[in-house]
TrEMBL record:
<dbReference type="Pfam" id="PF03129">
    <property type="entry name" value="HGTP_anticodon"/>
</dbReference>
<feature type="binding site">
    <location>
        <begin position="355"/>
        <end position="358"/>
    </location>
    <ligand>
        <name>ATP</name>
    </ligand>
</feature>
<feature type="domain" description="Aminoacyl-transfer RNA synthetases class-II family profile">
    <location>
        <begin position="138"/>
        <end position="389"/>
    </location>
</feature>
<dbReference type="InterPro" id="IPR033731">
    <property type="entry name" value="GlyRS-like_core"/>
</dbReference>
<dbReference type="InterPro" id="IPR004154">
    <property type="entry name" value="Anticodon-bd"/>
</dbReference>
<feature type="binding site">
    <location>
        <begin position="304"/>
        <end position="305"/>
    </location>
    <ligand>
        <name>ATP</name>
    </ligand>
</feature>
<dbReference type="InterPro" id="IPR045864">
    <property type="entry name" value="aa-tRNA-synth_II/BPL/LPL"/>
</dbReference>
<dbReference type="GO" id="GO:0004820">
    <property type="term" value="F:glycine-tRNA ligase activity"/>
</dbReference>
<keyword id="KW-0547">Nucleotide-binding</keyword>
<feature type="binding site">
    <location>
        <begin position="232"/>
        <end position="237"/>
    </location>
    <ligand>
        <name>ATP</name>
    </ligand>
</feature>
<keyword id="KW-0030">Aminoacyl-tRNA synthetase</keyword>
<dbReference type="InterPro" id="IPR027031">
    <property type="entry name" value="Gly-tRNA_synthase/POLG2"/>
</dbReference>
<feature type="binding site">
    <location>
        <begin position="237"/>
        <end position="241"/>
    </location>
    <ligand>
        <name>substrate</name>
    </ligand>
</feature>
<protein>
    <recommendedName>
        <fullName>Glycine--tRNA ligase</fullName>
        <ecNumber>6.1.1.14</ecNumber>
    </recommendedName>
</protein>
<feature type="binding site">
    <location>
        <position position="102"/>
    </location>
    <ligand>
        <name>substrate</name>
    </ligand>
</feature>
<feature type="binding site">
    <location>
        <position position="190"/>
    </location>
    <ligand>
        <name>substrate</name>
    </ligand>
</feature>
<comment type="similarity">
    <text>Belongs to the class-II aminoacyl-tRNA synthetase family.</text>
</comment>
Amino acid sequence: MSKSTDELFKNVISHAKEYGFVFPSSEIYDGLSAVYDYGQFGAELKNNIKTYWWKAMVQMNDNIVGIDSAIFMHPKIWKASGHVDGFSDPMIDNKDSKKRYRADQLLEDKIDRYDKDGKTDKAEQLQHDMDEALKAEDLPRLKELIIEHEIADPISGTRNWTDVRQFNLMFSTQMGAVADDADTIYLRPETAQGIFVNYLNVQKSGRMKIPFGIAQIGKAFRNEVIARQFIIRMREFEQMEMQFFVRPGTQKEWFNRWKETRLKWHLALGTDAAKYRYHEHTKLAHYADAAYDIEFEFPFGFKEVEGIHSRTDFDLSQHQQYSGKKMQYFDPELDPDTNKPYGNYIPYVIETSIGLDRMFLLTMINAYEEEDLSTEEKQDSRTVLRLHPCLAPVKAAIFPLTKKDGLPEKAREIMDRLKIDFNIQYEEKDAIGKRYRRQDAIGTPFCITVDHQTLEDNTVTIRHRDSMEQERVPADQLDKIISDFVSW
Ligand code: ATP
């Protein structure tokens, strides 16, 4: 069944809604732009992705610990980090449609258009001009490019543009009852700063020695100018970040190590390596001395899923300056060149930062398959989520063959035992074939059927999602069979 990638993506989105993975937020009020809710299976899948990350980062590395810092932080933190002055996108409004766009996005779309039309020279030239303008933060030049390349508003079709302005992406709110400037606080646009400001607390209380890392999973908020491509660009999203503190001078080595380690983490889920690529940043943020993205090939092209950044001592130095508190670490290890301790320094930081929602979408897209099961006799198909069993929201479903003769009771008895360790579903409605299809659609790796023979010899039929093969096994071996597949 070959489908265009556009169609496939649309199908994944509607599948995600139909089967309780992702709903538009506030849907009964016509939704809230770029905000989504995770449904009953989405929440499970998301939790399993978090667990996979947490285990790989925190549990498997004895020099990495995890924290959970508050979303609200002292406003000076965002001054120190550079977000108040610099965390913005260039935006432009169309005076007729009154719609707001990211100027760079309009230009990117035009570049794609040129590429699609085979106008490679024009595409390359525009890319170059745009990169130059962005690097120089030359906002009038961005507008000039929009005019020169005759970019029209997709809604009004007109080219009646305002000037390009910088638009800060942080959401702000007031803390306490009195609304004056001093009380303005921000919803964090990244989780990293919560790690930086706690780095000495963790180092001291955990007696951590460099190199060590601090990991965190949590919500981040960005008032994205344009939000599109489903959960790729949301205004409220989740990040899984790890800051690794290293001795200055060793950052290159650690950067390369984390770059490789993180790609391996992605590939360990069985994803085709050809779907991933590294993208090296040539235009580095002011604080970085190296940056790579790990990109995944979504149906709409390669997009960043994770960033690995060498952030130097920028963040800790800034916090030292703004807070007036020392951010230094005393390194007792002997420098082989001088035979003296390395002594006091502000550590350098390597960051790995992955968007949980993008990882979620990647996982859904990768797993989704519309499989043709037609034979010469009859047409048949199924939609199956071939999720890695560790990530599957439901690990096994239990079906009594019929609703009578004590089969439901027996099925529930088996389920009650299994549910202590695994997320299990019980289903007795509809024919077995239909029940299989429903479980395939949510990615359940095993379906267990309890029939009359079970009552005699305590064996059940277990059906495997991917091969659709069935085998008869003793019910008391189910724990082991399931855990062999789903344990980490
Ligand atoms: P982009 O260039 O796509 O806006 P970014 O470079 O601003 O992303 P980072 O600040 O490096 O992203 O954030 C780290 C990760 O957080 C990204 O790799 C991405 O997976 C995720 N992320 C960032 N912004 C969003 C968003 N608006 N919605 C969902 N995930 C996001």
